[in-house]
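Re: [ENG-882] Designed sequences occasionally contain unexpected residues at chain ends

Forwarding the minimal case from QA. Structure tokens:
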């Protein structure tokens, strides 16, 4: 038996309830700021995002290891023509084996310096990417070492202002997509994973794609000009779903997160040091 929706005869009480609900929601938001719960939740989101991006880097390492081993074994069985320069299996394994002297990226790039390896791997892994595989794999260290959290910059010896700056999380998404270019399904999952992750924290994310490997966020200010939906919005919580208020409105809608939290998530995803800021801080 289905229950009929309730129609209130006393909308004044419901409006009063709505005001009190809004007041409690505002109070909860202020309390979260004072107790640093808001800051702690932003930190959790940051850790979750970087952890997920690091797992994509791990996926890439595993796939490259198996790809090189697979090609090497097929060559030894004379099932394909020679596509790689490796003389034995240990040479392949040594690229992905940890050594304090050389990072995995350095060893992988050394293998790419050999023409036959470069031709094969760029054809398989960065096809239609419009960027060399050597440049594409540079992001691996930033992901694996969670560099966005520490914002490590690498100073030039000749120019104290010339640095290699960490990319924003939005830029990292684009670079991860390039890194996973060889696997269309996983490449397309990069943005979906971020949306699902933010959904856990009651944040809706709408990314706008500038090109195959570029994304951008639209703030409320941007949307006034281009008439698009803001990229980051709070989910709404509906109270008294079955109660009709004022003859048309059904239920009381309260945002799950306040405006400040939404702006903080925008800044988190877009944040990156730039050379101008570094010069200012040096002065």
């Amino acid at each position: 038996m289905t229950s009929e929706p309730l129609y209130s005869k006393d909308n004044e009480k419901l409006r009063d309830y709505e005001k009190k609900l809004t007041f409690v929601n505002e109070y909860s938001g202020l309390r979260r700021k004072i107790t640093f719960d808001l800051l702690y939740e932003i930190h959790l989101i940051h850790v979750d995002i970087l952890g997920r991006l690091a797992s994509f880097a791990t996926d890439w390492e595993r796939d490259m290891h198996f790809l090189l081993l697979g090609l090497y074994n097929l060559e030894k069985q004379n099932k394909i023509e020679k596509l790689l320069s490796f003389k034995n299996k240990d040479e392949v394994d040594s690229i992905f084996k940890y050594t304090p002297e050389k990072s995995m990226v350095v060893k992988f790039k050394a293998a790419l310096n050999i023409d036959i390896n470069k031709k094969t791997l760029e054809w398989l892994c960065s096809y239609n990417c419009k960027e060399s595989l050597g440049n594409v794999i540079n992001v691996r260290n930033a992901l694996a070492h969670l560099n966005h959290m520490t914002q490590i910059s690498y100073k030039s010896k000749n120019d104290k202002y010339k640095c290699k700056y960490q990319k924003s999380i939005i830029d990292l998404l684009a670079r991860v997509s390039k890194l996973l270019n060889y696997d269309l399904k996983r490449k397309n999952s990069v943005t979906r994973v971020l949306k699902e992750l933010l959904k856990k924290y009651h944040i809706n994310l709408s990314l706008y794609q500038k090109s195959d490997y570029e994304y951008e966020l639209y703030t409320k200010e941007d949307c006034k000009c281009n008439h698009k939906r803001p990229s980051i919005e709070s989910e709404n919580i509906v109270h008294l779903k079955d109660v009709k208020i004022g003859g048309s409105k059904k239920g009381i809608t309260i945002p799950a997160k306040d405006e400040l939290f939404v702006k903080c998530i925008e800044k988190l995803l877009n944040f990156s040091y730039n050379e101008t800021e570094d010069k200012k801080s040096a002065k």
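QA comment: On inspection the terminal residues look reasonable. The mean pLDDT is 81. Proposing we downgrade this to a documentation issue.
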